């Protein structure tokens, strides 16, 4: 038996290998052929690839200065290594606890309040049968998305001003004491999150509305014939149907839990509310761009991205385990 | 079909419409208030007499705003950055999205992964700043339009749209001897007007409302975009350059500044608020396409 297999097996193996090799060569040839045929597409994409290498990948390479003492004349490569020194300095700094707390609390607050509201809004808009009203609700709720952050923060200052703001006018008219909302640390996070909800709830609901539009209407009809109430249809049919969209959006938002955006916090920040408003991104700006401590601030930024990425991986893993839905 | 709605469903419908109406009011009230305030006598407004419609109608705040040099410079710069930036965004996005949409484009998988990575990883604020500085872009218009030239999210939306153009059209064209570039310009782009409009809106709104790049890359205020001037006027309360306080009293001066703020907000926001309703049905489609393959 053994003999036969070696004698007869060898040529079979050889021809198999040959076939594979030939296939590989053919594929290579046809690949070359398509590359040749589409040479102009490569020409088209080439500058954009260069853009990504220079403006996206080179800064990743540059992030190594977090482990170095960056000296401008020596450049990124020439500056001396210092290991984790900048990270240690950050962990031991006076600001560390407050930065982590503020960043995390704002992130979680946003998640808890800002995440469910667009879903509820989409479910509600989906129940509106009057086309005209539906269009009005959509158009109006999208409007704040098109305002700039500068304008939204300016509106907050106008409406919440202790002397002239309309909200304090009402409080005073009702016999209360005016509150200086924008300088009071205790109010900072609530104002930040609620104004964010105001600005983005409509825009964020579009994606869920789109998913709801894809549900087979026969499902809903069948449930109604079986005597389901509207709330039951929403709960047992509409919500499960958009579950995977919800989970994907949830993973994405969890992945930026420490990535509280710089732009709005920075504008709302002032010396009086600093203890509640200082987050990682604004600290990086102050020490890096303003204070020119490039290595130290890069280390802080890198710390943030690493935590974000770990959270993203964990949440994605959990979602895949529990719901079989994941980003990758 | 004629089955009567039960009381629970009726209640639900009433409640739903009522709540959505409340949402509309909460969304619109601040916007209407600002619009009314910009047309009102600031004195009346500060006394709390303004609730919804203008009191003591006047155009004084606007005439004051248009006399201001910063507003004009900011407006001019922002219009320039928005048009130049959006043009660069669109051209670059098409240049990468089209090849990636072609099933016969060898290397599309790795290249897609190559750009997707940048959605989750970035060098961070400081290394990017150092790069832009070393390239000599600080305090030039290029810092405003080049570092954010391509959004991966928008590229994916575009690619998905291009993929839906039937392959047969291209095969027919290639038999007729049309080159890829020719085909892209003569056939694909005219078929893609809706998605290009949506992308122009997404990118354009971004440029119009951006202040961050200006904040870190620009020093000379002659190049400031409108949003940076707005920040100075509205948030840092630096109105010193805004009004020429002659012989009039300080109180009067402060009043005029207060009115001016509202006019400035309207002037800065109106263009975008006027444009978007016309593109609404397109951008809903754009977000939908993005959600499918995002």
From TrEMBL, chain B:
<feature type="transmembrane region" description="Helical">
    <location>
        <begin position="79"/>
        <end position="98"/>
    </location>
</feature>
<keyword id="KW-0812">Transmembrane</keyword>
<keyword id="KW-0813">Transport</keyword>
<feature type="transmembrane region" description="Helical">
    <location>
        <begin position="110"/>
        <end position="129"/>
    </location>
</feature>
<feature type="domain" description="ABC transmembrane type-1">
    <location>
        <begin position="75"/>
        <end position="279"/>
    </location>
</feature>
<keyword id="KW-1133">Transmembrane helix</keyword>
<keyword id="KW-0472">Membrane</keyword>
<dbReference type="InterPro" id="IPR035906">
    <property type="entry name" value="MetI-like_sf"/>
</dbReference>
<dbReference type="InterPro" id="IPR000515">
    <property type="entry name" value="MetI-like"/>
</dbReference>
<comment type="similarity">
    <text>Belongs to the binding-protein-dependent transport system permease family.</text>
</comment>
<protein>
    <submittedName>
        <fullName>Carbohydrate ABC transporter permease</fullName>
    </submittedName>
</protein>
<feature type="transmembrane region" description="Helical">
    <location>
        <begin position="141"/>
        <end position="162"/>
    </location>
</feature>
<dbReference type="Pfam" id="PF00528">
    <property type="entry name" value="BPD_transp_1"/>
</dbReference>
<dbReference type="GO" id="GO:0005886">
    <property type="term" value="C:plasma membrane"/>
</dbReference>
<feature type="transmembrane region" description="Helical">
    <location>
        <begin position="12"/>
        <end position="35"/>
    </location>
</feature>
<feature type="transmembrane region" description="Helical">
    <location>
        <begin position="183"/>
        <end position="205"/>
    </location>
</feature>
<feature type="transmembrane region" description="Helical">
    <location>
        <begin position="260"/>
        <end position="279"/>
    </location>
</feature>
<keyword id="KW-1003">Cell membrane</keyword>
<dbReference type="GO" id="GO:0055085">
    <property type="term" value="P:transmembrane transport"/>
</dbReference>
């Amino acid at each position: 038996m053994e003999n036969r297999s070696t004698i007869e097996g060898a040529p079979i193996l050889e021809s198999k290998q040959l076939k594979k090799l030939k296939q590989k060569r053919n594929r290579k040839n046809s690949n070359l052929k398509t590359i040749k045929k589409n040479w102009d597409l490569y020409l088209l994409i080439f500058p954009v690839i260069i853009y990504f290498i220079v403006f996206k990948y080179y800064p990743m390479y540059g992030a190594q200065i977090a482990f170095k003492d960056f000296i401008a004349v020596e450049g990124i490569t020439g500056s001396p290594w210092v290991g984790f020194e900048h990270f240690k300095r950050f962990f031991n700094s006076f600001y560390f606890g407050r930065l982590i707390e503020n960043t995390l609390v704002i992130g979680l607050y946003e998640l808890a309040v800002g995440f469910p509201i667009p879903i509820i809004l989409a479910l509600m808009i989906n129940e509106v049968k009057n086309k005209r009203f539906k269009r009005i609700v959509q158009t109006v709720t999208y409007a704040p998305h098109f305002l700039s952050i500068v304008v939204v923060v300016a509106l907050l200052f106008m409406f919440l001003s202790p002397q002239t703001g309309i909200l304090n006018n009402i409080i005073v008219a009702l016999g209360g004491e005016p509150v200086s909302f924008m300088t009071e640390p205790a109010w900072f996070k609530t104002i930040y999150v609620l104004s964010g909800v105001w600005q983005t709830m409509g825009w964020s609901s579009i994606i869920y509305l789109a998913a709801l539009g894809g549900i087979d209407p026969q499902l809903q009809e069948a449930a109604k014939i079986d005597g389901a109430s509207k709330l039951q249809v929403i709960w047992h049919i509409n919500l499960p149907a958009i579950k995977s969209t919800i989970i994907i959006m949830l993973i994405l938002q969890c992945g930026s839990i420490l990535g509280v955006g710089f732009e709005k916090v920075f504008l709302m920040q002032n010396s009086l509310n600093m203890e509640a408003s200082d987050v990682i991104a604004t600290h990086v700006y102050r020490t890096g761009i303003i204070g020119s401590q490039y290595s130290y601030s890069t280390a802080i930024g890198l710390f943030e991205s690493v935590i974000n990425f770990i959270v993203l991986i964990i949440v994605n893993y959990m979602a895949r385990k529990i719901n079989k839905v994941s980003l990758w | 079909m004629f089955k009567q709605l039960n009381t629970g469903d009726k209640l639900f419908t009433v409640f739903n419409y009522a709540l959505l109406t409340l949402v509309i009011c909460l969304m619109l009230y601040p916007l209407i208030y600002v619009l009314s305030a910009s047309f009102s006598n600031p004195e009346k407004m500060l006394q709390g007499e303004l609730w919804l419609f203008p009191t003591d109608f006047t155009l004084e705040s606007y005439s004051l705003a248009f006399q201001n040099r910063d507003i004009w410079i900011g407006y001019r710069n922002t219009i320039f950055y928005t048009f130049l930036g959006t043009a660069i965004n669109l051209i670059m996005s098409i240049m990468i999205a089209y090849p990636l949409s072609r099933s016969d484009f060898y290397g599309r998988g790795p290249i897609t992964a190559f750009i997707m990575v940048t959605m989750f990883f970035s060098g961070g604020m400081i290394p990017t700043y150092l790069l832009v500085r070393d390239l000599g872009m600080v305090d030039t218009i290029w810092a405003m339009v080049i570092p954010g030239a391509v959004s991966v999210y928008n590229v994916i939306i575009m690619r998905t749209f291009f993929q839906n153009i039937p392959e047969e059209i291209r095969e027919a064209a290639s038999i007729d001897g049309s080159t890829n570039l020719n085909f892209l310009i003569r056939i694909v782009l005219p078929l893609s007007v809706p998605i290009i409009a949506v992308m122009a809106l997404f990118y354009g709104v971004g440029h119009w409302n951006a202040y961050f790049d200006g904040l870190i890359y620009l020093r000379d205020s002659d190049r400031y975009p409108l949003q940076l001037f707005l920040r100075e006027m509205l948030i840092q309360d630096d109105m010193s350059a805004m009004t020429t306080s002659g012989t009039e009293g300080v109180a009067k001066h402060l009043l005029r500044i207060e009115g001016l703020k509202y006019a400035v907000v309207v002037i800065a926001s109106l263009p975008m608020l006027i444009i978007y309703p016309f593109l609404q049905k397109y951008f809903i489609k754009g977000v939908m396409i993005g959600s499918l393959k995002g």
